[in-house]
Amino acid sequence: MTRQNPPRLCVYCASHLGSDPALQQSAQTVGDLLVAKGIDLVFGGGQVGLMGVVADAAMAGGRHVIGVIPSSMLDREIGHQGISELMVVKDMAARKNAMFQAADAFLTLPGGIGTMEEMFEMLSWGYLHLHDKPMGLLNVNGYYDSLIEFLDGSVQLGMTSVRARELLIVDSDPERLIDLLLPQGV
Length: 186
Fold this sequence. Notes:
Number of helices: 7
Low-confidence stretches: none
Structural class: alpha/beta
Shape: globular
CATH architecture: 3-Layer(aba) Sandwich
Radius of gyration: 15 Å
Oligomer: single chain
Distance between the termini: 14 Å
């Protein structure tokens, strides 16, 4: 962990709401849990989709919310103006680095290819010993079942090490997962 009080959780998730209401509810629940546990939020800076839901919930409960968005995506993801800090950076590499630097742990909610790219980069960095920050994957309504099956299959086939797979903590319960990522609480 890089800081003690308050801890900061980086949440990777979609800039869309999706068609399953449970996905939006999971984002709301995560935001509410951050409030209840005294954890600040680092996220992609958009006010749309699951990103916006998590940020709005955390802000409504008085948490410090840091959004990081590339200037090229400011209009597309509608940069969230109602948060504590909105950092506008040059590009995606700068966004991921700023989010990494600001966070104590990472939680991936349902998302698409951008969310996966962010999560897998942090997982790769962890495997390469470039950081030791905990990483979690929230599997809402089986959203990530195929991905988990892929990861486990790649271990069985000797393409991914057991250690690399164990770096990603998977759970379907958001509170239990957050407690595993940031066990000291507040």
